[in-house]
Automatic annotation (TrEMBL), chain A:
Its main location: membrane. Keywords: Amino-acid transport, Cell membrane, Membrane, Transmembrane, Transmembrane helix, Transport. Residues 92-393 form the ABC transmembrane type-1 domain. InterPro entries: AA_ABC_transptr_permease_3TM, ArtM/GltK/GlnP/TcyL/YhdX-like, MetI-like, MetI-like_sf. Pfam families: BPD_transp_1. Signal peptide: none annotated. CDD domains: TM_PBP2 (cd06261). GO terms for cellular component: ATP-binding cassette (ABC) transporter complex. The keyword Transmembrane applies. This is ABC transporter permease subunit.
TrEMBL record, chain B:
It comes from the Bacteria. This is Transporter substrate-binding domain-containing protein. The keyword Transport applies. It comes from Oceanomicrobium pacificus. SUPFAM superfamilies: Periplasmic binding protein-like II. InterPro entries: Bact_solute-bind_prot3, Solute-binding_3/MltF_N. One of its GO terms (biological process) is amino acid transport. Pfam families: SBP_bac_3 (PF00497). Belongs to the bacterial solute-binding protein 3 family. Residues 33-262 form the Solute-binding protein family 3/N-terminal domain.
Length: 405, 338
């Protein structure tokens, strides 16, 4: 007979923290954490002590002071009598503008280049290889400066457009001027009644989405294929054009005109914006092209062959079979490319584009001498922007990823 | 428990090490080299020559201070700074002295915690334009594109000037003088604005200098001078009185030619005090008795430095004007060596 007895109840002794494997890893982790926190505390304390010794304790009051400087590109109302906080906001919006434009064009360029790099046409594939390797292996700062130099050195100055013997001429029916100070393009002016036209346009787009869903459901149910592309195109243009004329053409274009030193009117896309936008798009586009290529190559060749056996042709195989599967491989690295592009936009000051780094981290920092505060705010801004982009892209990734049923 | 005490004392030691530091003079003497912040390149004020040696009007101040402190005018490490990076470089201790045609303003002195040790050039902000632009006054610049060095007082002056005159402009922020020059010459800006001395220096490097002109308006006071950090009075005194020594030397007629003769002793007690043959001014500063001699010995007195780097015989061709000695109707004036 054996009696089951409880094991003797161990009393917890302090030495067990070191010698008992059940507790040892915990002990090590706690010590590591304490060390880490001490280092952080030391860094923070050192910064605070030194700032205090310099007589500059941490304070964000400068954001409410008058900035006193002008900014050329502003998406919101701003003049030199507004505050540093407002100037920072102008810069932040400029950063977001170039990041958004850059992400869109980089994606378009990257997808085309990535697909074409796999082309059977030898020349096309080689040209895309040259593009990808050329842009991927040169620092983006050099591309920004190079494109800026090309724009400002080769294009004519506004004064070349003046007079009867002008050496330069405006393009497309005198509506677009390419100068070394940037591109001037016509600007739409929305007069009264234009809201209805815009609303019609938005409704048409919603209509297209619903129509395509309905057409797809119908095709799955009956097998009949509708000319979806043509009908979508018609919905896109016709109702809006119809409403545009009904309302008496409420949207007019304001053309740029040479007045004084510069062109006036229209939209002025400064050469700094163009250089930055183009360089970031081409640079990031090269990385995206590689991502797209690897994504496509990750889809088994059997898929292409099976689709071919079903009677689908090249472009459709790519669009309906390969790309949807490749997307699952492409999206995650794409997120970091978007983040890179956004962060690389802080090189804007090289060409005088007034982004957040140029205003808050540049002139404001310099005029107020608040290095620590400005840099902390900048870091916070880039952190929030990057996390927001990540969140959106992760949500999209969750939507397209393989759904196991 | 023991571990915590150990870590605590370690942290405390680290903190103490982070805060305690020697005086700037001791640091410089220990390093054997003076770290001096200058421009990234403005001919006449600070620019490397064909052999890579820095020379210019501001560079001369660095060399004079190095000679006074270390006895060698070449014991200088020049740190090129932009308008934007210069204050951070000085505040963080990356440079010991900033001689980078920097305007003395209230907020820089009081809020940014710097000490301006004097004024070595009285300047004002001007405008450089092409003659064929047909502009004769800055007030006719409505709508013009203006290139401007970012992080400078000129940025603020410009905003004020155009605002006060109710005219519009398009600012193009530029990081360095070289970039501004390239943009201006390629006609990407109609106007380049900065201190008039800087404009003259820039214009002097143009191939067709005669096709460009400075507009008559000077829209600001720009007293330029070397500066140091707040909080080390001995170091600011050294920099201040080295500059004053150069200025006094011109007033007293001490030149690089007659320096060794003057050093033997003269019947003018102020020259003797300056040369260190009488009194103990050097000792009061914590330097050797002949500190001022060495400072003047590098490139001569203030007037000689001016003429050699930016004077009328150079391509930059600046007249003394406000920067003549007070005895000649200018503003350059040193307190007495007594």
């Amino acid at each position: 007979m054996t009696a089951i007895t409880d094991p003797p109840k161990e009393t917890f002794r302090l030495s067990m923290l070191l010698y008992d494997t059940r507790y040892r890893s915990l002990t090590i982790q706690v010590i590591a954490l304490i060390c880490f926190m001490l280092v952080i505390a030391w860094l923070v304390d050192n910064a605070a002590t030194n700032l205090a010794a310099l007589g500059k304790p941490l304070s964000f009051g400068f954001l409410g002071e008058i900035a006193g400087y002008d900014i050329n590109q502003r998406l919101i109302e701003y003049n030199s009598q507004m505050t540093h906080g407002r100037a920072a906001l102008v810069g932040i919006l400029n950063t977001l503008l170039v990041a958004l434009l850059g992400c869109i064009t980089a994606t378009i360029i990257g997808v085309f280049a990535g697909v074409l790099r796999l082309s059977n046409n030898w020349i096309v594939a080689r040209i895309m290889s040259v593009y990808v390797e050329g842009f991927r292996n040169v620092p983006v700062l050099l591309w920004i400066v190079a494109i800026f130099a090309v724009v400002s050195e080769t294009l004519p100055a506004p004064r070349a457009f003046r007079g009867d013997d002008a050496t330069a001429h405006m393009l497309i029916n005198d509506s677009v001027a390419l100068t070394n100070r940037g591109f001037y393009i016509p600007k739409p002016i929305f007069e009264s009644g234009s809201m209805i036209v815009v609303l019609t346009f938005i409704l048409s787009i919603v209509g297209i989405v619903f129509f395509r869903k309905w057409a797809k459901a119908r095709q799955e149910a009956t097998g009949e294929i509708m000319p979806v592309g043509w009908i979508s195109l018609a919905i896109f243009f016709l109702p809006t054009l119809f409403m545009f004329y009904i309302m008496g053409r409420p949207i007019v274009l304001e053309y740029p005109e040479l007045a004084g030193f510069n062109f006036k009117g229209g939209i002025h896309m400064r050469n700094s914006l163009i250089a930055l936008w183009l360089a970031l798009s081409l640079y990031t586009g090269a990385f995206i092209a590689e991502t797209v290529r690897s994504g496509i190559q990750a889809v088994s060749k059997g898929q292409t062959e099976a689709a071919g056996a079903l009677g689908l042709r090249g472009p459709r195989i790519m669009r309906l079979v390969v790309l949807p599967q490749a997307m699952r491989v492409i999206i995650p690295p794409m997120i970091s490319q978007y983040l890179n592009l956004t962060k690389n936009s802080s090189l804007a000051i090289a060409v005088g584009y007034m982004d957040a780094t140029g205003t808050l981290g540049g002139i404001t920092l310099n005029q107020t001498g608040r290095e620590m505060e400005c840099v902390l705010l900048l870091m916070l801004f880039y952190l929030i922007t990057s996390l927001a982009i990540s969140a959106v892209m992760n949500w999209y990734n969750a939507a397209v990823k393989l759904k196991e049923r | 428990m023991k571990k915590t005490v150990f870590l605590g004392s370690l942290a405390a030691a680290g903190l103490a090490a982070g805060v305690a530091s020697a005086t700037t003079l001791e640091d410089v003497q220990a390093a054997g080299v003076l770290k001096c912040g200058v421009t990234t390149g403005l001919v006449g004020f600070a620019a490397p020559d064909a052999n890579g040696n820095w020379e210019g009007f501001d560079v001369a101040v660095c060399r004079a201070v190095a000679a006074a402190v270390l006895g060698d005018g070449n014991a200088v490490e020049f740190v090129p700074t932009t308008g934007k990076t210069r204050f951070t470089a000085l505040a963080s201790g990356e440079v010991d002295l900033l001689a980078r045609n920097t305007t003395w303003t209230f907020s820089r002195d009081v809020d940014l915690k710097f000490t301006f040790v004097g004024i070595n050039y009285y300047d004002g902000q001007g405008f450089l334009v092409r003659k064929d632009l047909g502009v004769s006054s800055a007030k006719e610049l409505d709508g013009a594109t203006v290139c401007i060095q970012t992080g400078t007082t000129t940025e603020l002056n410009l905003a004020d000037f155009f605002r006060a005159n109710g005219i519009s402009y398009e600012p193009v922020p530029i990081e360095t003088n070289a970039e501004a020059q390239q943009q201006y010459l390629s006609n990407a800006c109609d106007v380049y604005t900065t201190d008039a001395s800087g404009l003259a220096a820039t214009r002097a490097t143009f191939e067709d200098a005669d096709a460009h002109m400075l507009l008559p308006e000077i829209i600001s006071k720009e007293p330029l001078g070397p500066l140091v950090r707040h909080g080390d009075e001995q170091w600011s005194d050294i920099a201040r009185w080295t500059l004053n020594a150069l200025i006094s030397a011109e007033e007293l007629g001490v030149t690089s030619a007659n320096l060794s003769e003057m050093a033997k002793g003269t019947n003018n007690p102020e020259i003797n005090r300056l040369m260190g043959t009488e009194g103990n001014l050097g000792e009061m500063l914590g330097l050797e008795a002949d500190w001022a001699q060495k400072a003047i010995g590098v490139a001569g007195n203030y007037g000689e430095i001016f003429e050699a780097n930016i004077g009328e015989s150079t391509p930059i061709g600046l007249a003394r004007g406000l920067n003549a000695q007070w005895t000649q109707g200018g503003l350059i004036y040193s307190p007495p060596f007594r």
